[in-house]
């Protein structure tokens, strides 16, 4: 009978040793991360607060707007890099990220922004075990400590942010555009003399190029034919009344384009149009059927 107990006892001992080994390794990663973070803070003479969960944060600017509450929408830009300065992510120029503060992820960002005002800025250092861990990602190495800076827009309205982004772009390029009641900005390059588009039920044929405000071409087509009401609202609100032969450039606020969801490649899942992106179109109307 006693011999039968030997193998289960050995197996149990092995499991305990394995468990303790894993636990010790996890604690070692924590201590290594902590030492690196402390060295970075000291080297850069930073004053940071440590959250009980293990991450550090610092308010770089309180901001001059209203305080952020969990129920509020928050629009922001995000920069993520390693402690050595390797950049892993930056919000695209003229693009804005946004959600409700209470939904912001990871939780460390939400905690760091609680009590900050609109227009504020925070720095967050995530130890690797709270970031991408030992697996990392395609771009972030294993066990990498992540430093993030979050800059909150002074505005609580994406409509106002889009308008500012479009105006900043126009100013930077020396362009003059007319703002329509729909909030689309237009530059008429050539007035056509053919049939006018009578309604959104009209079928149009166009040559066009679509760009993000940073200049990236996300779509172009010569000879696209479609019923107008199947296209984004910004086109519908701009093209009705224009005549065949017209050449126009116009700038569409994000809510009249692909909105907060953006547009993704159906195969890869990568963004074609980022969320909350205003768009820049050049269009030539080559055919109209009413």
UniProtKB/TrEMBL annotation:
Q: Enumerate the UniProt keywords alphabetically.
A: Isomerase, Rotamase
- Keyword Isomerase found: yes
Sorted alphabetically, which Pfam families does this protein's record hold?
FKBP_C (PF00254)
Q: In what residue span(s) does the PPIase FKBP-type domain sit?
A: 201-289
Keyword Cell inner membrane assigned to the entry: answer is no
Output the InterPro entries linked to this UniProt entry. Answer: PPIase_dom_sf, PPIase_FKBP_dom
- Supply one GO molecular-function term: peptidyl-prolyl cis-trans isomerase activity
What EC number(s) would the UniProt record show? 5.2.1.8
Catalytic activities: [protein]-peptidylproline (omega=180) = [protein]-peptidylproline (omega=0)
Q: Extract the PANTHER family matched here.
A: 39 KDA FK506-BINDING NUCLEAR PROTEIN, FKBP-TYPE PEPTIDYL-PROLYL CIS-TRANS ISOMERASE FKPA
Q: Which family does the record assign? A: Belongs to the FKBP-type PPIase family.
Return the protein name. Peptidyl-prolyl cis-trans isomerase
